[in-house]
């Protein structure tokens, strides 16, 4: 923020014509270098770029760290639920109005959390693209003018061609994990668990170019691209973890049950029939929907909780899923943070019962971090929108990686679950782009 700028001033705003596709504009802003820290978040019909840092909240396993304009940085220990620590920290923000964007790690829900659990920024400038227009708002008018000039500049060169990543590695280790999970289910330890595997990318990556290439080939419920504190990620989320509007209406969208997609009419129709009739896939989906209902009962008016579109097939890039929507209205005294706390992590990326599944995941896998966590937008109005982070690329300290998992139930087989991870990785692996200047 510029010296002397008051945070109670009305933001500078400009509206310019969005002469190019929103994806092109978002990729241009992210790759421009104007804002080291930034988040791109896509919802149906609306794309948002959040650039720079006006305020910042970082949560780790022992403390919450906040930076606000006009104040010295603050660090405070917290006890109890991490979601409550975020709620209280944002409630104390010295800003009359704010929107925040960031991410939450899977370990946010662990009984023994470790590492960075959440990172949110209130941006210096926001760009919202919808209905053919780009609305630019910022605390500093100079930021607004720089963004407007950038959006009006000549079209940048095309992104580099992708360098596909081979998804068929690490099969033996993963199959052994699945077999152990099936044994645990037979022993009654839990009913369902999502077991995942990490796939390292053997070259430096261009994360923004990967977003551009991958988004053009995917059909996500939400998409995102972020660079916060040097950690980068981009992905094409297949499902909404939690959406809360200003009136307290909550929605979650569990997807469970998977088959390959994108091989043409007859092949896709055949795998769709398999998906809709396979007892294992139907059972996996039904128990996930039931769990989502139970979670909303904890924070919503029980009479308002309902299921719509039960077991509708959702096409998401290289795979198709069974999907349902579960909704409700927050009970008096409840907030969007309560809804997030009840639904996080997504049942379709953790297991049933959640606590036992999360504990077992900690034994079976290395730390997940953002995988199976969330990228979220939250507002002073009480609205929140959180995408489940799957089908994503992660990049930190010069190392990039992918990750995918499969839902394990009593009827699972190691070979089929390994194939499912390959199918899911194929939503992102073919579109990974090398950083410029890196040889093939």
UniProtKB/TrEMBL annotation:
Gene that this polypeptide is encoded by: mbtI
Protein's organism: Actinomadura napierensis
Cofactor(s) recorded in Swiss-Prot or TrEMBL: Mg(2+)
Pfam families reported for this sequence: Chorismate_bind
Every Chorismate-utilising enzyme C-terminal domain range: 173-424
Protein name: Mycobactin biosynthesis salicylate synthase MbtI
Keyword Ligase: no
SUPFAM superfamilies: ADC synthase
Keyword flag Phosphoprotein: no
Keyword terms, alphabetized: Lyase, Magnesium, Metal-binding
């Amino acid at each position: 923020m510029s010296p002397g700028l008051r945070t109670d001033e009305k933001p500078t705003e400009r509206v310019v014509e969005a002469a190019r596709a929103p994806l092109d504009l978002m990729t241009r802003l992210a790759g421009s270098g104007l804002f080291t820290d930034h988040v791109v978040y896509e919802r149906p019909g609306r794309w948002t770029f959040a650039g720079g840092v006006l305020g910042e909240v970082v949560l780790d396993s022992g403390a919450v760290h906040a930076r606000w304009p006009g104040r010295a940085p603050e660090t405070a220990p917290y006890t109890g639920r991490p979601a409550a620590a975020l709620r209280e920290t944002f409630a104390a923000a010295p800003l009359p109005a704010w929107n925040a964007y960031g991410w939450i790690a899977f370990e946010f829900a662990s009984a023994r959390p470790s590492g960075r659990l959440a990172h949110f920024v209130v941006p210096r400038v926001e760009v919202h693209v919808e209905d053919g227009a780009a609305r630019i708002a910022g605390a500093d008018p100079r930021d607004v003018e720089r963004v407007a000039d950038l959006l009006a500049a000549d079209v940048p060169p095309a992104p580099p061609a992708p360098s596909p990543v081979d998804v068929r590695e690490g099969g033996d280790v993963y199959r052994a994990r699945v077999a152990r999970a099936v044994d645990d289910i037979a022993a009654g330890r839990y009913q369902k668990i999502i077991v995942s595997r990490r796939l390292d990318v053997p070259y430096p990556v261009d994360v923004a170019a990967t977003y551009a290439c991958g988004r053009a080939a995917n059909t996500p419920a939400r998409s995102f691209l972020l660079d916060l504190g040097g950690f980068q990620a981009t992905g094409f989320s297949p499902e909404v973890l939690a959406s809360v509007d200003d009136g307290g209406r909550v929605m979650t969208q569990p997807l469970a049950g998977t088959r390959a997609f994108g091989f043409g009419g007859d092949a896709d129709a055949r795998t769709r029939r398999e998906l809709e009739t396979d007892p294992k896939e139907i059972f996996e989906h039904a128990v996930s929907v039931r769990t989502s209902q139970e979670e909303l009962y904890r924070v919503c008016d029980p009479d308002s909780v309902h299921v719509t579109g039960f077991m509708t097939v959702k096409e998401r890039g290289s795979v198709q899923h069974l999907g349902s929507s579960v909704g409700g209205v927050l009970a008096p005294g409840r907030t969007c943070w309560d809804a997030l706390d009840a639904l996080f992590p997504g049942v379709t990326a953790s297991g049933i019962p959640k606590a036992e599944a999360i504990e077992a995941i900690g034994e079976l896998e290395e730390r997940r971090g953002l995988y199976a966590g969330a990228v979220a937008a939250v507002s002073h109005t009480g609205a929140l929108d959180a995408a489940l982070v799957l089908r994503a690329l992660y990049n930190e300290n010069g190392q990039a990686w992918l990750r995918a998992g499969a839902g394990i139930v009593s009827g699972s087989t190691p070979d089929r679950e390994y194939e499912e991870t390959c199918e899911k990785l194929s939503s992102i692996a073919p579109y990974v782009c090398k950083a410029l200047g890196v040889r093939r």
